[in-house]
Design goal:
The chain is of the alpha/beta class and 266 residues long. It has ten helices and eight strands. Strand 2 (62-67), helix 4 and strand 3 form a beta-alpha-beta unit. The protein is globular and about 55 Å long.
């Protein structure tokens, strides 16, 4: 699996992933629970930010969590324990048969997400299900409006595209899953809206998740000549204005579910 994680693997990114997962747990995981005894594969588990919620919601399931980073797996194992089968592996090297596959914030980093989904389909038993969650940075809009803030977000979008990923992939989940041969594809937006009446979302999502994610690419954006230090600092300052008394922020995640048809071809 050729992937370049544009956000990096430093401790602030691990913390950001945890903040995001905990703040959005109900939004992202509502409707996802696996039966006791079912075999569940989580692809790209990272530091276990989503794994901890999968375990909590499906305590009787047999969960296998896979990632390419040994350091991330070590953090996940330390956080959650040995009640999960932790595996270091590339997505395209995975084998076995599972009842359910869970993929969260992984496809956006892959140069061939459709090919990845087609391979994951081969790991599902006939009738098995897949759940895919992705964001879409094009869904970010906010008040006060700011061209400088939008330019900073656009730097992140450009850097991820140059690394072979797609931070606008949320809008593509239906054609990607359908093209990979899944049936019964359903996609729905899971929208985050934050203003001063929702201080937990302002802090946990707008500030500690989204703005922190944008801030994390500052060095690369400046080094690549996508922005200047002054323009970048102005854009990030304007993003922080959305967290103040009269600021607002909107973002949409997309949650897709599908299945492998019983008796269907691989």
């Amino acid at each position: 699996m050729d992937t370049s994680y544009v956000h990096g693997y430093a401790e602030p990114e691990a913390r950001r992933l945890g903040d995001q997962a905990d703040t959005l747990a109900e939004l992202l995981h509502a409707g996802t629970a696996y039966p006791a005894g079912s075999r569940v594969l989580e692809v790209g588990c990272g530091v276990g930010a989503q794994t901890v919620h999968l375990v909590a919601r499906s305590p009787g399931a047999h969960l296998t969590a896979v990632d390419v980073s040994e350091a991330s797996l070590a953090q996940a194992r330390a956080r959650i324990g040995e009640n999960v089968d932790w595996r270091r592996a590339d997505l395209f090297d995975l084998d076995g048969t599972y009842d359910h596959v869970f993929v969260c914030f992984v496809l956006e980093h892959l140069p061939e997400p459709g090919k990845a989904l087609a391979h994951l389909k081969t790991l599902l038993r006939p009738g098995g299900t897949i759940t895919v969650l992705e964001g879409d940075h094009g869904s970010a809009f906010f008040h006060p409006r700011s061209a400088s803030a939008q330019a900073a977000i656009d730097c992140l979008i450009r850097l991820q595209a140059d690394a072979g990923g797609d931070s606008l992939i949320g809008r593509r989940l239906y054609p990607l899953l359908t093209g990979a041969g899944f049936d019964g594809v359903r996609v729905e937006p899971r929208t985050v809206y934050a203003d001063a009446s929702r201080p937990d979302l302002v802090a946990g999502f707008t500030r500690d998740t989204f703005i922190a994610m944008v801030e994390g690419v500052r060095e690369n954006a400046v080094a690549r000549g996508l922005t200047t230090v002054a323009d970048w600092d102005r854009g990030v300052a304007d993003l922080y204005r959305t967290t103040r008394e009269y600021g607002t922020f909107h973002y949409a995640f997309y949650k897709a579910t599908a299945h492998r048809t019983p008796g269907g071809a691989s």
